[in-house]
Amino acid sequence: MALSSKSRVAVTTDALPGATSASRRFDRPTVVRLSVIFVVMAVVVGATWATFAGVRGDIERTGTRLAATSAQLHTTSRQLHAASQAREAATARLGTAKNNLDAARTGRDIAFGHLQATQRELNLQQSHLTAASKDLTNRFLRLANLNQCLGGASKALNQAAVSDLNGLARTLASIQASCNAARGTA
User: Fold this and answer.
1) Where are the extended beta strands (E) located within the chain?
2) Is the pTM of this model over 0.90?
3) How far apart are CA 169 and CA 147, in angstroms?
4) Is position 2 within any domain?
5) Res 30: pLDDT
6) What confidence score (pLDDT) does residue 63 get?
7) Domain that holds residue 16
8) Do 12 and 23 meet the contact criterion of CB atoms below 8 Å apart?
9) What are the per-10-residue average pLDDT scores of the chain (186 residues)?
10) Is residue 43 part of a domain?
């Protein structure tokens, strides 16, 4: 490259492939402008590259966080599925327990109904037993009165056989209440 006295820069294209041997000449302000454009383009390309590298790092970090979040979401989804299955199993067990409880309550109610029926039957039998016991007591009392009446009658017959009329009258008077009670007319 050779400089002229008029501040011209000689740029040769000999080193460029496919270039002709003719040289082009640019004046100094054009070279400065081209240099500034080159520097600005280099800064823009560098800034773009730096920004791209930063964004690329952000993208990689975001991708890593996204992968971690996705894995955590997958784990949470499996845990939620397991918890959902456990809840469904517990709900089924609760339903079975409720059915068993309802069956037990129904059995209890039936047994209580049987108990009440048995209690009524027992009360009825108790009243029959009480009546039979009272009747038996009355029969024993009438039997005792009859026994006393017959004993007195036997004594009175013996007194009549021996002609003890005073003893006969006393004996008949003493057994009259027992004989009336034995007949049920007391």
Assistant:
1) 8-11, 24-27
2) no
3) 19
4) no
5) 87
6) 86
7) 8-183
8) yes
9) 46 49 69 89 86 80 89 94 95 96 96 96 95 93 92 93 92 92 75
10) yes
Q: How many domains does the chain have?
A: 1
Reported residue count of the chain is: 186
The string of DSSP codes covering 126-153 is HHHHHHHHHHHHHHHHHHHHHHHHHHHH
- 3-state secondary structure string, 111-128? HHHHHHHHHHHHHHHHHH
Q: What is the pLDDT of residue 124?
A: 95
3 within domain boundaries: no
Torsion 110-111-112-113 (CA) sign = positive
The answer to whether residue 46 sits within a structural domain is: yes
Burial of 135 (0-12, 13-18, 19+ CB in 10 A): exposed
Q: Judge contact between 152 and 175, C-beta under 8 A.
A: yes
